[in-house]
UniProtKB/TrEMBL annotation:
It comes from the Eukaryota. This is Peptidyl-tRNA hydrolase ArfB-like. Belongs to the prokaryotic/mitochondrial release factor family. It holds the Pfam family RF-1. InterPro entries: Pep_chain_release_fac_I, Pep_chain_release_fac_I_sf. SUPFAM superfamilies: Release factor (SSF75620). It comes from Priapulus caudatus. Residues 21-37 form the Prokaryotic-type class I peptide chain release factors domain.
């Protein structure tokens, strides 16, 4: 569960997280281990309050598709766990920045 505020939380089922192979230099494990994370979050089909959805859909962020899906790729760390945490943190930051006054 991703906590956005005291009243707003996202359930795990709303966030689609997939492990993928990282690109670029990485030593022995590059192209062998799926350590990068690909996160997808559908704004329109989420449990977010309407105000949150409206503010997110108004953003001109390259991570938000025309269909209203947030796509975040995290591959800066060597482990899936750290990349997953980084992707979730980016999602949380994006939503909080969009809805802050």
């Amino acid at each position: 569960m991703l906590k956005l505020s005291n009243m707003v939380q996202l359930a795990d089922w709303e966030i689609d997280i997939t492990a993928i192979r990282a690109q670029g230099a990485g030593g022995q494990n590059v192209n062998k281990v799926s350590s990068a994370i690909h996160l997808r979050f559908d704004i329109n089909n989420s449990s977010l309050p309407p105000f949150y959805k409206q503010r997110l859909l108004q953003l001109t962020d390259h991570r938000i598709t025309k269909e209203g899906v947030i796509v975040i790729k995290a591959q800066e760390f060597r482990t899936q766990e750290k990349n997953k945490a980084a992707a979730l943190e980016r999602l949380q930051t994006l939503i909080k920045e969009a809805t802050s006054p």
